[in-house]
Amino acid sequence: MSEPEFSERDWRRLLSSLGEDPDRPGLVETPSRVAKAWKQWTAGYDQDPADFLKVFEDGANDYNELIVVRGIPVYSHCEHHLAPFFGKATIGYVPNGKIVGLSKLTRLVDCFAKRLQVQERLTTQIADAFQTHLQPHAVGVVISCRHACMESRGISTLGEDTITSAMLGELHTNPVLRAEFFARAREG
Question: Which fold has domain 47-186?
C-alpha cells in the first residue's frame, strides 16, 4: 500500500468548506504545507519493518535476559478523527540467539505510528512485527499516549493517558518475567 496523496486542491477545498478564504495572505501557502505534513505523517505506509529489522546472529552470545528500551516517542493520528495522539512506547524482549540494533526499535514504532491508527492496533502491530522478524523467546510492548480527540472535542478532558500492552511468548505465559518487564517499563 502506498502513502495517500494529498493534493493542495483538496486542502484548498477544505479551507473553503470551513468558510475560510484560501487566497488570504495567512492561508495562501497552507494547502502546500499541509499536503507536505500529511505526506510525512503517513510515511509508514511505504515502510516495511523487514527492511530495517536486520538481526545480528553473533551479538546475543547466550544472552537470555530481558532487554528493555523505554521512552520511544510515539506520534500518530487516529483513524476516527485524524487527530494526533502522542506519547511513549516501551519494547522489551528476551533474545533467542539473535539481537537487533537498539535504534531499530524506534524505527519500528515510527513505521507503524506513521499510518492512520488506533492505539490498540499500533501496539499489536509492533509486537507482531518484532516477533516475526526476530523470533525472540518473549516480546512485550507498552504504549502510553494522550489523544487529542479526547482532549479537544467530545469529553474534552486534558492529560488522560491511555495505556495498551501486547505480550507474546514467555511474556504472555511467565508471570515472573511479565512482572519484571512491567517493573522495568515503569522505572525512571
Answer: GTP Cyclohydrolase I, domain 2 (3.30.1130)
Q: Where are the domains of the chain?
A: 8-41, 47-186
pLDDT for 139-179, tens place per residue? 999 999 999 988 888 777 888 899 999 999 999 999 999 99
* Catalytic site residue from 111, 117, 119, 145: 119
149 is catalytic: yes
The burial of 136, by beta-carbon neighbours within 10 Å (0-12 exposed, 13-18 middle, 19 or more buried), is given as: buried
The active-site residue, picked from 149, 151, 172, 180, is 149
**Active-site residue flag, 172:** no
In angstroms, the Cα distances linking 23 to 18, 29, 36 are 13, 9, 18
Cell of 10: 483538496
Catalytic residue, chosen from 111, 145, 147, 170, is: 147
Q: Using 50, 70 and 90 to split pLDDT, how confident is the model at 5? A: low
Tell me the whole-structure pTM to 2 decimals. 0.91
Residue 145 designated active-site: no
